[in-house]
Amino acid sequence: MIYLDHNATTPLDERVLEAMLPWLRGSYGNPSSVHAPGRAARAALERAREQVAALAGAHPSQVVFTSGGTEANNAALKGVAGRRPAARIAVSAVEHASVQQPAAALARTGWTVETIPVTDQGEVTAQTVASVLRADTRLVSVMMANNETGVVNDIAAIAAVVRERGALMHTDAVQALGKQPVDFSAGGAHLMSVSAHKLYGPKGVGALLVDKAVDLEPLLHGGGQEKGRRGGTENLAGIVGFGRAAELAGAGMDTRRLRMNALRQRLEQGLRERVPQAVVFAAGATRLPNTVFLALPGIDGETLLLELDRMGLALSSGAACGSGYSEPSHVLQAMGVAPEIARCAVRVSLGAGNTEHDVDTLIAALQTQAARLQTLAATAWD
Q1: Which is catalytic among the residues 12, 220, 321, 341?
Q2: To pair with 122 at 20 to 30 A between CA atoms, which of 46, 146, 151, 205?
Q3: Whole domain around residue 262: which residue ranges?
Q4: Residue 50's domain is classified under what CATH number?
Q5: Bridge partners of 169?
Q6: Which portions of the chain are predicted below pLDDT 70?
Q7: Same domain, 245 and 286
Q8: CA 346 to chain centre
């Protein structure tokens, strides 16, 4: 099977597993305990915090470990709302469900949720954010890189506008971390969500980066862990794995970005030459180097995924959390893509293990499916 769904999750790097194994076997101390095993666990925890902070351009004290990106996003939105009277929150139209749904939950408690529109390329601009802000806007949430299209937003420019208006800025950087440089300290966001399993780390661990000036109500109370910001005994093996994955991602990022970009260009050139009817979404925007969101008009996306799966290729129709829903991508709808085209969308997200042969195999498979569609259409016409 050729795996082309790395925006959904990545395989665990063997070097990450090696770092985790001692904490899954003989080393079992609780990081909150003061005895020797506890102190060893605490040292491992803090080392991982430093590693994640280094990749994200943050100070270690700003890293609050969570169970993943979804918890981090919930903690950001609900944490801000929990310490402030109900007012306004603005979220972009293309956010992940783990931002959109907490925002909807806040709307049921008296908060007003404003939607920030995007361009036809799926971009959120600072000018559009400025037009949505009101005097009582308390928080703005705009993702750094979109999980479906791969579109990268200028978070620094957006954050500058948000700060000028006196609001807080949150960005979901789950897809960006490890694929491109991320600098929490210089980027202007007050809050940033990240996750381990998007960068060859384990599932079930992530972090919320928090500016020291931001007061948050904890999503989980009890125990006082993470300096009282997130209750519950830390997932030490997972956190150690996150730290090691972050370290490895930082060390190999430039080489990996160049390689992913070359593979993406090979894929898109192959589509232009051999599958000219294919539509590549957001092709005019700055995108992650590993992501191509495309459609073969006339072939339902879910049907195409199943056909490709039978041919030994693993892709997705967009957000992994949205799989199984018949509605077209909300990201493409926000971009103004016609529903009949949006329903045909499939996402290719390349990873470290992919090769030129994998890309060429995908192009050939898409060409086969497109030809099959043409044959069926001709048969129906006859």
Answers
A1: 321
A2: 205
A3: 2-8+253-376
A4: 3.40.640.10
A5: 140
A6: 318-326, 374, 376-382
A7: no
A8: 17
